């Protein structure tokens, strides 16, 4: 279909859709069956069997399997079968870990997909872009990623950036008119908007004519399908660490084997023991456990309304030292309410809060109505120059659109102006709001074919463009005292933390030029709105907790300096001698200039998104790790440049979300603090199970090495070594990744981004605890063996049990940076369950007769258990009291 050659009504007929009602749910279902989901095909996922087989690609596991085969050929069937079973169980654990990570990451990718605004059964809805169907009526706004190939049916200065298709980054102006020319390339189809391209300016409505692989982008995707899998810096660091640990483990294992052979042990026995020890000692599951810990932590963050788009952000969150946050909607509720109106030189007061349409207008203490001069006109103009709409949900009004515009609709309702009045006016042209213009204007035509311009925007923007002012006696030339009165009213409103918005109009002739520069001059200023956006209740506490965590909170707003100062003071964000900078001052500063005072600045007022980039660079130049929030398309550069880019889930554009690493699903500042808390905890949990795994491995190697150096028999047989690895390294290590944060995690300073994994004494803890665990197991073996070969199986059982119990006690020690006694051991129910299951498995191996010959164990008595427990508790208790 050559949609660009068709009139819009023909497009509607061919797709059986009305641009005023959209598709029905039945039509959507039918089209989804016919065309599938609106998504590009990707490379096929690796099959589960291949993922499972991959668990056995490790060199040491292959060597172990070869050794097991040899054991079987030599008649050691029980050992061979036992080792095979343990290797298989280990393989299944690795498989489930990897699948859990992949599923979690796929879920995150799905949740972070762009959304689309579509008309279904007469109601505008936000849906994931993959659910857009052919024939859907789609609404496009500045900053949106276009969800499908769309035939534009109505355009308001729409411009799109199509570099994804054409390589050209210059925006393309779009229109809704049919193009008669034939055989046009995509870049020349000016009435079409294409999937995955970006709306850079304006707005439009269109009909989806192609989805998924049936789009221009789909044709490109079909030529090259690939997937990219990236690793986080921490995963990369741990992979490098793993290589070093493998080399060390192999060296120590070789030393054990050679010493054992030298001491007269059979070569085959020592070879099998050495391979088993190497498999147990090498933390081959570390990267998988890290991925699982990261993805599970991210799932917890989702429940706290923070969606992580890049796993690397989890690590960076723990290093954040500055949060630069938008005020509106993030620190405040984003429920604007008109509280004051400056009109005819007087300040009027408007009652009512939020989006409740009950309220009245008062002059001094006298209630006034629509008859008051210019009041009805001002509220009508505010309702007409407006893209928001009021909707009723569950008996309450909600605003679909910008909250500031929503507040004007609510104010108009309080005066008795119905939204149906908008039907009496036809919009001829729209000049959309953007951060550079700081205003929005429309040209409308009334029932009498009279045209006029309505403009709303910042008072300091509209006042210089207004030569006239509306007074009780009619339109007058603006005098010096009028300007003084307006500026005074702005200041008074700002002192009360009210945001100000001016509204102006201009009568037009039918042959008037539609050039924006000529339209928006010689206007008549009608009056000012003063609106409040109350701070979110939880933000003040979040700012204080962030301060305790060594994190500076900075407010960034386009509001008046006085308004920003008032709200910052109310939130306890601005200290007594803290600085407030405005956009004008920022314009006259270079990054080095700003860098000199940046640590004293807590509020940036009257700023544009372009200023945000300068703020980020100045903070970074001072060595800070910066989290920057944003919602508009112009925020994307600053968000991308920051260390942690944070976009708004409710009000943010698709482009901003794609540039960010973290999405606030509730647009709430307190959620940033929760995300940083969770990010710190995830990193600490990773440190916990690195500490646990490596200390356990050190203990396993040392008990074997010291026994060989002392010319003693093997304190552990190969199958026991593998069993220790399976029972103590698997589930408890995973459960540590689910541990709750310590009470003081948000009372410590931010982590330095270059901090090593073994920083803050972790290396000492691993080696010291590992040595003590190894000594405890060796002492247990020596006390039980007493030089009598007949006691060998009994002594090996004692050593085996001591090693397992010591490691399971040590896992609780790993939960705290301080001491095993500093935390409630039953707090982490997953860890308790993992330890209980490991103990039950140990008891089965020791006491169940069919397993005793397989694992070379014998039943233990009460006195034996007293010895085991005493020695097992020794490492954790010793360091618990020493607190090192």
From TrEMBL:
Entry GO CC: plasma membrane
InterPro entries, per the entry: ATPase_P-typ_cation-transptr_C, ATPase_P-typ_cation-transptr_N, ATPase_P-typ_cyto_dom_N, ATPase_P-typ_P_site, ATPase_P-typ_TM_dom_sf, ATPase_P-typ_transduc_dom_A_sf, ATPase_P-type_domA, Cation_transp_ATPase_P-type
Mode of membrane association: Multi-pass membrane protein
Sequence ranges assigned to domain Cation-transporting P-type ATPase N-terminal in this UniProt record: 2-76
Location(s) in or outside the cell: Cell membrane
Gene3D superfamilies to which the protein is assigned, alphabetical: Calcium-transporting ATPase, cytoplasmic domain N, Calcium-transporting ATPase, cytoplasmic transduction domain A, Calcium-transporting ATPase, transmembrane domain, HAD superfamily/HAD-like
Family, similarity comment: Belongs to the cation transport ATPase (P-type) (TC 3.A.3) family. Type IIA subfamily.
Protein name: ATPase
Native source organism of the sequence: Lentibacillus amyloliquefaciens
């Amino acid at each position: 279909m050559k949609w660009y050659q068709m009139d819009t009504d023909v497009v509607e007929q061919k797709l059986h859709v009305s641009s005023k009602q959209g598709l029905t749910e039945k039509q959507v279902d039918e089209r989804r069956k016919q065309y599938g989901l609106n998504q590009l095909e990707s490379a096929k996922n690796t099959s589960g069997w291949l993922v499972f087989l991959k668990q056995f690609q490790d060199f040491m596991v292959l060597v172990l399997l070869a050794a097991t085969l040899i054991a079987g050929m030599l008649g050691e069937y029980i050992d061979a079968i036992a080792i095979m079973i343990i290797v298989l169980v280990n393989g299944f654990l690795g498989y489930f870990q990897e699948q859990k990570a992949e599923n979690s990451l796929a879920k995150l990718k799905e949740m972070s997909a762009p959304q689309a605004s579509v008309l279904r059964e007469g109601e505008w809805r936000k849906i994931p872009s993959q659910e857009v169907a052919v024939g859907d009526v789609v609404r496009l706004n500045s900053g949106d990623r276009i969800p499908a190939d769309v035939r534009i049916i109505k355009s308001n200065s729409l411009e799109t950036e199509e570099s994804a298709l054409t390589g050209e980054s210059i925006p393309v102006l779009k229109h809704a008119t049919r193009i008669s020319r034939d055989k046009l390339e995509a870049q020349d189809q000016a009435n079409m908007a294409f999937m995955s391209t970006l709306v850079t300016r304006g707005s439009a409505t269109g009909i989806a004519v192609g989805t998924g692989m049936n789009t221009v982008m789909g044709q490109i995707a079909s030529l090259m399908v690939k997937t990219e899998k990236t690793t986080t810096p921490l995963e990369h660091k741990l992979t490098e660490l793993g290589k070093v640990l493998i080399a060390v483990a192999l060296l120590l294992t070789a030393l054990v084997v050679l010493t054992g052979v030298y001491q007269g042990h059979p070569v085959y026995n020592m070879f099998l023991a050495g391979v088993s020890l190497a498999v147990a000692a090498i933390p081959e599951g570390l990267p998988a456990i890290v991925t699982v810990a990261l993805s599970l932590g991210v799932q917890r963050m989702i429940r706290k309304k923070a969606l992580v788009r890049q796993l690397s952000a989890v690590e960076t969150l723990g290093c954040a030292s500055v949060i630069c946050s938008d005020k509106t909607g993030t620190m405040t509720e984003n429920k604007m309410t008109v509280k004051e109106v400056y009109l005819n030189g007087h300040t009027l007061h408007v009652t009512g809060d939020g989006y409740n349409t009950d309220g009245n207008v008062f002059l001094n203490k006298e209630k006034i109505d629509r008859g008051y001069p210019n009041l009805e006109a001002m509220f009508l103009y505010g309702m007409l120059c407006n893209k928001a709409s009021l909707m009723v949900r569950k008996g309450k009004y909600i605003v679909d659109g910008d909250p500031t515009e929503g507040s004007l609709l609510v104010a108009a309702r309080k005066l008795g102006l119905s939204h149906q009045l908008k039907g009496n006016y036809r919009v001829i042209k729209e000049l959309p709001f953007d951060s550079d213009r700081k205003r929005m204007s429309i040209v409308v035509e009334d029932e009498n074919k009279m045209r006029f311009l309505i403009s709303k925007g910042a008072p300091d923007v509209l006042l210089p463009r207004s030569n006239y002012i509306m007074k009780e006696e009619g339109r007058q030339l603006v005098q010096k005292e009028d300007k003084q009165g307006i500026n005074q009213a702005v200041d008074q409103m700002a002192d009360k933390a009210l945001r100000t918005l001016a509204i102006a109009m201009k009568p037009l002739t039918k042959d008037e030029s539609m050039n924006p520069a000529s339209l928006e001059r010689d206007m008549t200023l009608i009056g000012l709105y003063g609106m409040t956006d109350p701070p979110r209740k939880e933000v003040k506490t979040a700012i204080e907790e962030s301060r305790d965590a060594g994190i500076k909170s900075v407010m960034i707003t386009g509001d008046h300096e006085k308004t920003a100062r008032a709200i910052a003071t109310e939130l306890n964000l601005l200290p007594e001698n803290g600085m407030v900078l405005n956009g004008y001052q920022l314009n006259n500063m270079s990054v080095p200039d700003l860098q000199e005072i940046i640590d004293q600045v807590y509020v940036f007022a009257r700023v544009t998104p372009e200023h945000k980039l300068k703020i980020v660079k100045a903070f970074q130049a001072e060595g800070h790790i910066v989290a920057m929030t944003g919602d508009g398309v112009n925020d994307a550069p600053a968000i991308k440049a920051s260390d942690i880019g944070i976009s708004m889930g409710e009000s943010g554009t698709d482009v901003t979300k794609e540039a960010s690493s973290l999405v606030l699903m509730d647009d709430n500042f307190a959620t940033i603090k929760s995300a940083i808390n969770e990010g710190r905890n995830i990193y600490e949990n990773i440190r916990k199970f690195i500490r646990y795994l490596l200390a356990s491995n050190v203990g396993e190697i040392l008990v074997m090495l010291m026994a060989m150096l002392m010319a003693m028999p093997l304190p552990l047989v190969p199958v026991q070594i593998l069993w220790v690895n399976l029972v103590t390294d698997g589930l408890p290590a995973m459960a540590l990744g689910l541990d709750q944060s310590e009470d003081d995690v948000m009372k410590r300073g931010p982590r330095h981004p270059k901090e090593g994994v073994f920083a803050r004494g972790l290396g000492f803890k691993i080696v010291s605890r590992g040595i003590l665990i190894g000594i405890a197991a060796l002492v247990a073996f020596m006390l039980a063996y007493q030089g009598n070969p007949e006691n060998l199986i009994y002594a090996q059982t004692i050593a085996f049990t001591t090693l397992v119990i010591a490691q399971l006690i040590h896992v609780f020690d790993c939960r705290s940076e301080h001491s095993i006694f500093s935390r409630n051991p039953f707090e982490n129910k997953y860890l308790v369950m993992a330890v209980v299951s490991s103990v039950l498995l140990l008891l089965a191996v020791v006491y169940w007769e069919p397993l005793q010959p397989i694992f070379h164990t014998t039943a233990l008595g009460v006195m034996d258990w007293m010895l085991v427990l005493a020695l097992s508790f020794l490492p954790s208790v010793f360091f618990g009291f020493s607190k090192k």
